Amino acid sequence: MTDPYTSRVSGRPQVLERPHPVVWGTSTTPDVALFAERGYLQQDHALSTESVENCLAEIDRLQNDPDVRGDARIVREEGTSAVRSIFDIVEFSDIVRDAVAESGAEDIAREILGSEVYIYQSRLNYKPGFHGGAFYWHSDFETWHAEDGMRHPRAVSASIALTRNETYNGPLMIMPGTHRSFVQCAGATPEDYYRESLVTTAPRAGAPAENIIADMADSHGIDVLTGAAGSMTVFDCNALHASGGNISPLPRANIFVVFNSVDNPIDRPFSGSVPRPSFLAKRPPATGMAAVESSTAADICATREGGNRR
Fold first, then answer.
1. N or C: which end of the chain has fewer CB within 10 A?
2. What percent of the chain has pLDDT over 70?
């Protein structure tokens, strides 16, 4: 199988044309048409005020719960005890799971991806006031393809705001239109690199070259996505995006959920690395084309992952 999304290259990285569609279904709704053009869509009032408040209370509970303090799914800011991300958040919390259902993100994902979907990854991202770290420019699909084995860019992410997203507290930034190109990254993937990549603000692998980022920004511009608590952004898995650090006194928190098509196989990592833990990359359920196509690869990955599985 020829890989049209080769990355982690030893030579000079290139910007490749994306050979697969953005919208896999037949939707003609204005929001989805805008998504196809820009690589993202936004909706206000995806969550009620009550749901937002319940989720924020759940964050406080989980941050201070001694039973989960040493859990590998709780990621803290480098060099501090401040929580950066809580992975598998829909498994940790029924309250958050219900909020994701309320948002309608899954229905939007089905419409865009043209199939049934499942949650590939879920997490809570938290940027405390004064100390919130940055997330560097990247394409999620580049990571999921290279380090997890996601075959095609047939996945979308939903970012559901639990606090105000202002220009000054580290909001999501997207380069609109970059989802139609695949940006290669240079360098081999270090062993167990996910442990570093989840906390670093200066990644050694999986980040586009600065000259490519600059060229893409010149060509596409940068949209800074602000919004009220309860608003939601759904974006393509291949869009270049980032968020700055938060040195304002206003914290930023959001629920981040990735929906993958059940027909999008998860093979062995295309970078040749050992698969990341399942809380970062869940495989399709035992239905759909992907389950058939990747069954052998899944067995191999499970064996290689070994002790990393929870």
1. N
2. 92
